[in-house]
Amino acid sequence: MLNLIPAPRGSVHMQEGSVKLPETVTVSLGDFAPWCLEAFAARLDGHVEIAENGFITLKKADIAKEGYKLTVTKDGITVEAADESGVVWALTTVTELTAEGEALPIVTIEDAPHYGHRGLSLDCSRHFFTADEVKKVIDQMTRVKLNVLHWHLVDDQGWRIECKTLPLLHETTGTYYTQEEIKSVIEYARVRGMEIIPEIDMPGHTRSMIAAYPHLSCFGEKTELCQFGGIFEKILCPGKDETFEFIEKLLTEVCALFPDDRFHIGGDEAPKTEWKKCPHCKARMEALGLTDYEDLQGYFTKRVVAILKKHGKRAVCWNDVLESKDVDTGNIIQYWTAQHEAPVPAFIERGGKVIFSNMSALYFDYPHGINSLNKVYHYQPVVMGKSYADSPNMLGYEAALWSEQVETPEHLEELLFPRLYAVSEIAWNEAGDYADFEHRAEKKIEIAAKQGVNCMTKDGWNPEGEARVQSAATFIAHMMNPGGIGTPHTDAEREMVRPVIEKFAQIWFRPQDVPEMMKNDDLVGAALNFMKMFPPENDKTDRKSVV
Domains plus CATH for the chain? Predict the structure, then answer.
């Protein structure tokens, strides 16, 4: 059995014997561009040369996108692929099989991914990670054939893009990526087979824009950056023409930085509190004949999408935007919350494309006690009781890590690995034998640790018992009630929050955990605070921005 993550999806034919890579590996490029060798060369410390008759021969072939046929003999290696990405993944297979200096087995592998979208959403707004730290994550992701980094660069807590036409954006935050740093990350990802999708969330999660340019909000008051997680009422005003003039100026510059054709515009968690008081929003709704504020957000989204189209970009949005009517199926929807799942099946049936990032399994800022490795591995793309695993409109899986409670690269890596290996496995090859996957994951983290990655140790992958409940409860308590940790509570308070505790159990725990959860003062405090934030008549249990 080959020790690979993801396991090959196609055929594997092994024979007796093995072959060592030469000290300097020569490659015959054929009709492929030289950049497809860059990651391979970097992983072999530069000991790769292009030659007419190389130890590795690259050949064009009629093979699925990103797919490859890898043939290893005692005399050399042949890679057949339709495109450079297939070559990158074939050579990644070679480096992973020889990661600790092992000889290559004599083998023929025919392989191609199940889903085209295999990614991670990484929040660098709440807590900033340097360009080098992001590159380190990219390298580890692409070693297991993940191909998308959704780069969350802007939120209420920070603006992380150098913007030369609107400099107050990055100057107000102070810590940001220069445009040259952004370009270097994009190029680093590209030669490793990865697409970068930037996200500028709007109209909600825009406090960093409004802190720099207050006139963008409904009432124009001076506003500060947020210092903690949450959902904030001050958002962009769709009633003002100035808002869209600003967005067009902004996107004209930012779109030019990112060469790929997908651009994420968020659309989640946009409270309509100020819109309902705003004369500009009222006038806009009257002019458009709108009565529902969700449709006002739909209007906002359409205006932004039109701007993106002028720059050759396709919009990606969180599934919250489906609360408005007639969302264009040209937009890609990213499903994260059951709170807004009802419109998703209809969108898919109309031909809309969906990425699955369900918070109940694929949020990796959540501790392993909530989203364990086993849970991630067995995740299925189900909405309203229906599976979309075989739907042509299911693009793939994307994990997400929000950084409110993640301050260091070491903690980041511990949360990502090995759970990202499970995402790779189910996106490339679907779930199979978990015990076999776990064995391969154990080997993979040994190698990653030698490469300087701080992976979660095996004893933390699938915590059980009181320790599991405690770790999860502490996380949720900090999420919901950061100032009230450890406060004792009365029996009356415990009974009052029982419905919320039971709801937490549905989302983050298991029904059998409820008795233990009811004893946990941290969790009871979180539930009390939750009831203040979201009264039962307006329950919004599935919240993302605070985690």
Answer: 12-111 (3.30.379.10), 128-138+331-428+435-459 (3.20.20.80), 147-315+322-328 (3.20.20.80), 465-538 (no CATH)
Strand, coil or helix: 70: strand
Residue whose structure tokens are 């002028």: 310
pLDDT of residue 534: 67
Beta bridge partners of 18: 105
Distances (CA, A) of 353 to 319, 331, 370, 398: 11, 8, 28, 14
3-state secondary structure 6-56: CCCCCCEEEEEEEECCCCCEEEECCCCCHHHHHHHHHHCCCCEEECCCCCE
Sign of CA pseudo-dihedral 275, 277, 280, 284: positive
Helix (H) or strand (E) holding 435: helix 434-450
Give the rounded percent of residues in the chain with a pLDDT score beyond 90. Answer: 80
pLDDT computed for residue 486 by the predictor:
56
Helices vs. strands in the chain: H and E counts, helices first: 20, 18
Nearest CA among 199, 200, 202, 195 for reference residue 217: 202
Specify whether the CB–CB gap between 290 and 299 falls below 8 A.
yes
Nearest Cα neighbor of 272 from 233, 327, 229, 239 is: 233
Decide: 518 and 501 in contact? Cβ < 8 Å. yes
CB 455, CB 137: distance < 8 Å:
no
DSSP for 511-537 reads GGGHHHHHH-HHHHHHHHHHHHHS-GG
User: Are 397 and 92 a contacting pair, CB within 8 Å?
Assistant: no
**DSSP assignment, residue 457?**
P
Residue 233 tokens read as 């009422």
**Locate tokens 């380190």: which residue?**
136
**DSSP conformation letters of 204-216:** SS-HHHHHH-GGG
Which tokens hold the place of 231?
């959902």
pLDDT digits (tens, 9 = 90+) for 222-278: 999 988 788 899 999 999 999 999 999 999 999 999 999 999 999 999 999 999 999
C-alpha of 137 from chain center: 12
Q: Is-contact 547 403, C-beta < 8 A?
A: no
Smallest Cα–Cα separation from 287: which of 241, 320, 328?
Answer: 241
Q: What pLDDT does 539 receive?
A: 44
Could you tell me whether strands 394-401 and 353-356 are parallel, antiparallel, or unpaired per DSSP bridges?
parallel
Tokens read off for 178: 């220069």
- Count other C-beta atoms under 10 Å from residue 31's C-beta: 7
Dihedral over Cα of 360, 467, 545, 402: its sign: negative
Distance CA 271, CA 320 (A): 11
Q: How far apart are CA 400 and CA 304, in angstroms?
A: 24
For residue range 475-501, what is the model confidence (pLDDT) as tens digits? 877 777 655 555 678 888 888 888 888
How far from each other are the two terminal CA atoms of the chain, in whole angstroms? Answer: 39
CA dist 482 and 224 (Å) reads 20
Cα separation, 384 vs 387, in Å, equals 9
Count of positions (residues) in the chain: 547
